[in-house]
Sequence to fold (418 residues):
Amino acid sequence: MDMEQETGVKSLRNKEKSKQKFLDAVEKILHTKGFSGLKVNDIAHTAGLDKKLIYNYFGGKDGLIDEYIRSQDFWSNIKDNSAETLVNDGGKTFCKTMLLSQFDYIFKNKNTQKILLWGLIENRKSLKKLANDREENGARLFEGLTDPYFKENAKRYRAIIALLISGIYYLDIYATTNDATFCGLDLKSAAGRTEIENAISFLIDKSYE
Amino acid sequence: MDMEQETGVKSLRNKEKSKQKFLDAVEKILHTKGFSGLKVNDIAHTAGLDKKLIYNYFGGKDGLIDEYIRSQDFWSNIKDNSAETLVNDGGKTFCKTMLLSQFDYIFKNKNTQKILLWGLIENRKSLKKLANDREENGARLFEGLTDPYFKENAKRYRAIIALLISGIYYLDIYATTNDATFCGLDLKSAAGRTEIENAISFLIDKSYE
DNA sequence: TATTTTTATCACCAATTGGTGATATATTGT
DNA sequence: ACAATATATCACCAATTGGTGATAAAAATA
Fold:
């Protein structure tokens, strides 16, 4: 059971490396073909390994997919910025930065889009866990920062953020799948995206008036 | 070729009725199992007819699904209200009513949710046509009402509406698939939904200040 | 080196899926 | 009643899919 290997030279057969190949294959297929393309045969072929290993290592397709989802660190892109930006403006600048960076991040990260979409279609436990992480992360922000600031209007502000976040999600995904415009705005063009960014800024500002 | 039948008694074999059975089957399966459940065998069995007819009447599964999508009159729920509500307030009350009724309508209409979701996943021509209808419908509103009102800020207002509509879509779909909360709000409860409605009203009001 | 364990492949299975040609049955027109 | 046509069923196929037992090959251990 000694897994230690001092040199960088790895053996030809390596369980951990193989598991990773399967996870990478899931990501690749998800990116190119979407959920419906996630078939065991296809995954195994993409990983360059035998499908039997999926059952040996992950207990089946579902286990593999769950592990892939768990491997996605959903909130890493936010936590970075959050650090110690707790200026005493009721979370205004923080929320604004967070929403704008989300708008950009989700647009660029097709895998994150797929996982978000997945959460609207299936009811996987591992997907629920992701959503739960988001909620817990948000709870800290709301309870510690915005709720005390908005007092009796705290819930309305939460609703505003909910609308903006989910609007951002939808528009980014829509822009990726469709070439069409949305409300006459080209969400793939810099100009169109700037309009959305302006609207986000504007609405946050107005919410603090 | 004489299709006229005076009495209510229909013949056992009726092409139009059979086609409708297939369309109904698609709706039923879409509602219960989602897109991934739309298999020719399953559709035929649900319709109580032979799958061969799907190929005879619709040219295949895709043709049937396209015809189902086309059969969905997406904007009927909006056009009703729109009639002649053109008060000269820059479309404020109209937009507000429209958004609130959408929030309610989409929540109750699971089929509409599925089709919206579909538009985020697949790139079907028939789905594009639906999106196009929405755009054309919106164009009339924007060009005739809000653009003249907001002048140089016209595009920002469009972006605001884009964010709110897509936020409404996402939240309604999310609420249906997940039991979890979003930003700490229970989107299935009357209380939670009222908060969202208040936020929508609030943001529209603020946009017109 | 010989043995044991881990890692990976292979051949094969049953069930599902999309698809079609041959055929049966009902309806219509003569 | 008869033929012609429209409607529907059936049996069957090939390809795909999820899944597994037997086995090979590499690595670790003795």
